Amino acid sequence: MASIRDVAKRAHVGATTVSRYLNDNGYVSDETRIKIEKAIKELNYTPNELARHLFRKRTGIVAVLVPDVSHPFFGEFVKHVESKLYENGYKTMICSTTKEKNSEIEYIDMLNRHIVDGIISGVHTLEVGAYLNVDKPIVALDRYFNEKIPVVGADHYHGGEMAANCLINCGCRNVLQFQGAKSVNSPSHERHIAFERIMKMNGATVCTVELEWNRFEEDYFQQVVQEIFRTNPEIDGVFGADLLAIAYMKEVIRHGKKVPQDVKIIAYDGTYVTDIVSPTITAIVQPIEELAAESVRLLMNRIADISNLEQRVVLDVKLVEGESTCVQK
Amino acid sequence: MASIRDVAKRAHVGATTVSRYLNDNGYVSDETRIKIEKAIKELNYTPNELARHLFRKRTGIVAVLVPDVSHPFFGEFVKHVESKLYENGYKTMICSTTKEKNSEIEYIDMLNRHIVDGIISGVHTLEVGAYLNVDKPIVALDRYFNEKIPVVGADHYHGGEMAANCLINCGCRNVLQFQGAKSVNSPSHERHIAFERIMKMNGATVCTVELEWNRFEEDYFQQVVQEIFRTNPEIDGVFGADLLAIAYMKEVIRHGKKVPQDVKIIAYDGTYVTDIVSPTITAIVQPIEELAAESVRLLMNRIADISNLEQRVVLDVKLVEGESTCVQK
Predict the structure, then answer these.
(1) A99-131 residue pLDDT tens
(2) Residue B48 and residue A115: Cβ atoms within 8 Å?
(3) Which of B236, B237, B317 is nearest to B284 (CA)?
(4) Nearest-CA distance from B314 to chain A in Å?
(5) Which end of chain A has a smaller Cβ tally under 10 Å, C or N?
(6) Which residues on B lie below 8 Å from A79 (Cβ)?
(7) pLDDT for the residue numbered B328
(8) Where are chain B's structural domains?
(9) What is the ipTM, given to two decimal places?
C-alpha cells in the first residue's frame, strides 16, 4: 500500500507538504495541489484515517446513548440524530443502556480517551455522578445532569396542560396518568404536574401511577395495565406514553368496553404506533426530528468551542387528534 | 496530560517497555509491570486509544447498516447486534441507508481505511457492485452480495409455507400477499414462492403486490392498502410484513368489516407491533435476537481469520397465533 512518502516522492514535493494538503492546514500552491492529486490517483493512495484523526485530535464519531433503540420514540430520535450528524460529517455510535448498567460510564471514558468527539445522552441513568465534573461536549435529551451539560427537550408542561384540557373537554372526571420513575431528574415530569393541576382545577380526580425505572418491555406494561384496570373500574380517562396508552386501550377493549365511549385515551410522544392501532390514539406529539436537530446543533457548537454554553432548548409540542377522545368543540 | 514518556521516566524504564506493557506484546517482568502500574496510577495516565488502535490496526468498531433503524424489525435487530458486539468488546456504529443512497459505499470505504473492523449489512441496496471484490469482514442479513460475504437469515421458505397453510386451514380462497421489491436479491423472497405454491396447490387464488424499493413510511403503506382494498373486494386472506398487515387490517375495520370473520390476516416478522393492535395479529415470527447473535458470531470469525468462510446460516421461524386468523384445528 502506498504511503504518504510514496505520494511525496512521486509528486516531487516534501512529505509535510502532502500532509498539509491532506489535512487542509496551511498553504499549498495550486500547482503543487495538482501534482499531489495526480500522484494520489496514480498510486491509488488511501490516507490512513486513524493517523489523520490522531493528527487532528478528532475521530469524527459521536456516541448516542438511549435506553432502548427499539423503542419507537428512541428509534426515531436515533434515526434523525444519525442523519443530522451525517450532514455534519460525523458518524454515529449507538449504545442502548438498558442492557448494561454501567456502559454509559464507559462512553464518558471514551470521550476522555478520544474515541468519540461528543455524546448525545438520552439515557435514564440514576448515577448522575458519572457526569459530574465532565467538561466535554455532551448534550442531554430531557435530562438534567449538571450545569455544563445543555438540555434539549419538548415543552412538556404545555403538553401536560393540553392533555388535561382535552380530557376535561371530553367530560372525564376520574383520570389516570402513567409517570416514569421520579428518581430520574428529567424535565419530562413537568407534564404530570401540569396535567394534575388542570385536572384538579376542574374538579376531576387524578390517580398517578409511577412506573419502574428503565423498563420498556411490553409484558411489563401489560401487567401494570391489567392490575390498574382491575382495581380502578371508575377510570374514564387515561394519559400515558404511547405504548402504555395502547396497552391500556387494549385492556379496555378486552373487557368489552369501548374507546372513546367508555374510556378516553390520550398518549404522549405521538410516534407512529399511535396511528397503526384502531381506534387511532389522540396524542401530544413531540417534535422528534427537531429534538434531534437541536441536539446535534448544540453538540456541534460545543465541539467547536467548549465554552459555548447555550443551556436549554425547549421545543413546542402539538395535540394531534385521533379517535380515542371525543371531538373537541 | 501525562505521556507514555512521563510514565517511563517515573517507572525508571524505557518507553518501549511501557509500550510493550500497554499493548501486551512482548515480555515485561512482573517487577517492571508493578512499577509501570504504579506510575500510571500516580500520573493518572490515560493511554491514547487512537494511537493504540493505530498500532494494532484495529479500531474495535463495527458498522451496522440497515434501511431504517426506526423500523420495528431493524430497530430490534440493531439493539441485539449492539448488545452482542458489546459482549465481544466491540462498539457499534449505525447507519440508516434510506436517507442517502450512497452512504453504504462510504462505509465499505471506511473498512478499507481502517475506521471500522467489520460491517453487518442489512441494507436493500441495488448497487451490489460496491460489494464486489471486497474481501473484508462483512456479513449480510438476508442479502446475497457475493460468494465471499456470508448470509444470515431465517428459513423464509418454511415461513411462507406455514403462512399459506394457516390461511388454507381458515378457509381462505382469495388471498393477497405483499412482497418487497423483487430487484433486491434477497432470500426473503422465498417466502412468497412457498406461499403461492401451497395456495395454488389448494386451489386458492393468489394476488401478489410488489412494493416499491426501500420505502417504509406509513403513508405509503396506507396508500397502497387503500388502493388494493378498493380494487380487490373479494380478498379473504392477507399475508404481509407486520406494518403492512396492520395497515390492511385497519382498512378492513374502517370499512365496517371484521377481522378475522371477513378477512384473515397473517403477518411476517412478528415484532411487538403485531401484539399491540386489537385484534392481535397471527404472525410468522423471525428469531431476531438469534439473527443478531449469528451475524455477530460470523463477523467475529471473519475478523479473526478472513479465510473463515462459513457461508450461510438459516434459522427457523415459528408461527405465533393471534386473533386475526381462525383457530386452527
Answers:
(1) 655 677 778 878 877 788 999 999 877 677 777
(2) no
(3) B317
(4) 24
(5) C
(6) 68-70, 96
(7) 44
(8) 4-56, 61-153+289-315, 156-287
(9) 0.83
CB count in 10 Å sphere of residue B57 = 10
Closest by Cβ to B218, choosing from A50, A110, A275: A275
b/e per residue A206-221 (b: at least 16 CB within 10 A): bbebebeebbbeeeeb
Q: In the predicted model, is pLDDT for residue A2 greater than 80?
A: no
Query: Which chain B residues contact residue A46 at CB under 8 A?
Result: 112-113
Strand order in the sheet with A118-121: A312-315, A151-154, A138-141, A118-121, A61-66, A91-96, B91-96, B61-66, B118-121, B138-141, B151-154, B312-315
In chain A, what residues touch B99 (CB-CB under 8 Å)?
A: 82-83, 86
Q: How far is B293 from chain A (nearest CA, A)?
A: 15
Residue A58: strand, helix, or coil: coil
CB B277 within 8 A of CB B305: no
A103:B86 CB<8 A: yes
Instruction: Give the architecture (CATH level 2) of B4-56.
Output: Orthogonal Bundle (1.10)
> Around Cβ B265, how many Cβ atoms within 10 Å?
28
Instruction: Compare CB distances from A82 to B76, B94, B115 and report the shortest one's residue.
Output: B94
Residue contact B76–A70, C-beta within 8 A: yes
What pLDDT does B138 receive?
A: 93
Q: What is the pLDDT of residue A328?
A: 45
Domain B4-56 and domain B156-287, same fold? Reply is no
Of residues B61, B75, B93, nearest to A75 (C-beta): B75
Q: Are B214 and B181 in contact (CB under 8 A)?
A: yes
Q: How many Å apart are CA A75 and CA B35, to the nearest integer?
A: 47
3-class DSSP state of A48: coil
Q: Which residue of A has its CA nearest to B67?
A: A79
CATH superfamily, domain B61-153+289-315, is Response regulator (3.40.50.2300)
A276/B243 CB distance under 8 A: yes
- Nearest residue in chain A measured CA to CA from B73: A70
CB contact under 8 A, A92 and B93: yes
Among residues B314, B266, B280, the alpha carbon closest in space to that of B160 is found at: B266
Q: A188 with A156: CB under 8 angstroms?
A: yes
The CATH fold of domain A61-153+289-313: Rossmann fold (3.40.50)
Q: How far is B84 from chain A (nearest CA, A)?
A: 10
Q: Cβ separation of A113 and B277 shorter than 8 Å?
A: no
Per CB-CB distance under 8 Å, the chain B contacts of A83 are: 96, 99
Residue B26 has phi, psi (to 5 degrees) of 115, 165
Angle at B72 between CA B67 and CA B75, to 5 degrees: 65
Q: Tell me the chain A residues in contact with residue B278 when contact means C-beta distances shorter than 8 Å.
A: 249-250, 253-254, 277-278
Strand B264-269, strand B237-241: pairing: parallel
CATH code 3.40.1190.10 for A156-287:
no
Residues of B within 8 A of A97 (CB-CB) are none
Q: Which of A79, A90, A114 to mutate to test the interface with B (most CBs of B within 10 A)?
A: A79
CB contact under 8 A, B113 and A276: no
